[in-house]
């Protein structure tokens, strides 16, 4: 393709080249990868607009990438990949409205520091802070709390460059349809360059984690979900053991969690990973491993008081496959009971499926963001995980298939960052505004500049032709790895 670029285009792209040529993108878990033709790092909106125009002229695909934490091929392309790390400036701060406007490449850990310096904080935060703010809202990244929405719902204004190179500003009062679509757009509408985030005054959280039983939690789920401002729990398959985490705002002095090198690192990380490696050969060890981990690390009261973002985040250990869907929160107990029944039935089979801990549950308030799993409903996100000890393969496909079947029959919607098996007609049924989103996508990206395998597989109507801006040329097929489901 390089020989088709004009001299000025080639010079422009070479100036934005990031890292060594031949770069191969790998996501955090090393489960998906691709080799983009160009790996570029723009610093300004004008550069992004010019890249959109070059892509349109030559029938190229353009995909931004943040931390690469998504366990899917959402960011993959064999064309132009944009590293957004250089777009990390603070643009505006309104202390009275408690908002901060930043460029889209800002990582959440950078954002946490920016907010702390200004006496503000995010109202809710997920398990990690490695993602870029644009990547977090593109997939409706979430924390937990029945009164708290996902990160997409905290955006009050954004700027997006669409597939025609047009810079478009939107909010609840300016182009509201684009705003409600773009706040969770999985990269299908354009490249978000800046966002304004609704925050709150900085606060501390008092977190208490206690052991419980699964039957008690499920039988009193409403009480549990509303028992604190932020609640999540982990179930340990093959047992009735649950760890329930609750956190509330507090003005008490900081008392960080006491960490144990033995319990947290040696037993909870290195020894656990070694045990999982052995279980690849002896999967019947997994029930005892799950019980062992609960007994040694979770079967006690754990308490801490710290700055909010330090309490929200926790160690996700090592590489893993993960699947996560949201269901109406009232259906969460039935979903987990069905999953438990299947896991227990498999345990009784000599060659049945064996699974890792945990099964995690978190609660998120409804929103009006068109493609957020929280659209029109308060949900319980239920996640399943299979670790990859030392990056070794583990069997997970049957587990995923059964899990997704259960979630789908209970009105579930998948987390957009995860690899999943929901397609056009499924999503059309699951999301009331899906048709509106598809129409808007056609207007924002008429030439398919932002269409990669993920978008084509899940979002586009079957057999819809994708035309490139270069008249007479066909659509560019992508060669990034197919999702390993």
From TrEMBL:
Family annotation (PROSITE patterns): FAD_PCMH, OX2_COVAL_FAD
Main localization (coarse): membrane
Gene name per UniProt: ALO1_2
Family per record: Belongs to the oxygen-dependent FAD-linked oxidoreductase family.
Region (Disordered): 466-485
Top-level lineage group: Eukaryota
EC code: 1.1.3.37
Keywords assigned: Ascorbate biosynthesis, FAD, Flavoprotein, Membrane, Mitochondrion, Oxidoreductase
Protein name: D-arabinono-1,4-lactone oxidase
GO molecular function, one term: FAD binding
């Amino acid at each position: 393709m390089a020989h088709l670029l004009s001299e000025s285009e080639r010079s422009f792209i070479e100036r934005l080249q990031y890292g060594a040529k031949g770069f191969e993108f790998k996501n955090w878990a090393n489960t998906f990868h691709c080799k983009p033709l160009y790996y570029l790092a723009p610093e300004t909106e004008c550069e992004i607009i010019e890249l959109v125009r070059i892509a349109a002229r030559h029938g190229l695909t353009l995909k931004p990438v943040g931390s690469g934490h998504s366990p899917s091929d959402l960011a993959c392309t064999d064309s132009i990949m944009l590293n957004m790390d250089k777009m990390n400036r603070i643009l505006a701060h309104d202390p009275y409205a408690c908002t901060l406007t930043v460029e889209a490449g800002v990582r959440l850990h950078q954002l946490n520091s920016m907010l702390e310096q200004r006496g503000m904080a995010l109202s809710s935060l997920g398990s990690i802070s490695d993602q870029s703010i644009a990547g977090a809202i593109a997939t409706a990244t979430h924390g937990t709390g029945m009164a708290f929405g996902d990160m997409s719902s905290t955006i009050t204004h954004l700027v997006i460059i669409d597939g025609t190179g047009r810079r478009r500003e939107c909010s609840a009062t300016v182009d509201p349809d684009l705003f409600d679509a773009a706040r969770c757009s999985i990269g299908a509408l354009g490249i978000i360059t800046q966002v304004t985030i609704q925050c709150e005054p900085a606060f501390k959280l008092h977190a208490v984690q206690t052991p419980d039983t699964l039957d008690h939690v499920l039988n009193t789920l409403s009480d549990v979900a509303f028992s604190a401002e932020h609640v999540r729990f982990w179930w340990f398959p093959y047992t009735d053991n649950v760890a329930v985490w609750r956190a509330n705002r507090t003005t008490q002095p900081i008392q960080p969690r006491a960490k144990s090198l033995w319990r947290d690192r040696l037993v909870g990380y290195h020894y656990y990973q070694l045990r999982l490696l052995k279980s690849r050969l002896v999967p019947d060890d997994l029930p005892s491993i799950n019980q062992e981990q609960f007994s040694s690390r979770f079967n006690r009261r754990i308490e801490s008081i710290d700055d909010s973002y330090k309490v929200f985040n926790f160690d996700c250990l090592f590489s893993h496959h993960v699947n996560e869907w949201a269901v109406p929160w009232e259906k969460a107990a039935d979903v987990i009971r069905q999953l438990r029944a299947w896991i227990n039935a498999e345990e009784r089979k000599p060659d049945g499926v064996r699974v890792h801990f945990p099964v995690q549950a978190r609660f998120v308030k409804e929103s009006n963001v068109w493609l957020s799993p929280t659209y029109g409903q308060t949900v319980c996100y239920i996640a399943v995980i299979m670790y990859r000890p030392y990056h070794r393969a583990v069997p997970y496909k049957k587990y995923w298939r059964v899990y997704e079947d259960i979630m789908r029959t209970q009105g579930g919607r998948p987390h957009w960052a995860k690899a999943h098996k929901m397609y056009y007609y499924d999503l059309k049924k699951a999301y009331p505004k899906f048709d509106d989103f598809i129409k808007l996508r056609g207007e924002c990206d008429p030439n398919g500049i932002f269409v990669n395998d993920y978008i084509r597989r899940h979002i586009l109507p079957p057999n819809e032709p994708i035309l490139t801006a270069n008249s007479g040329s066909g659509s560019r097929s992508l060669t990034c790895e197919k999702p390993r489901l």
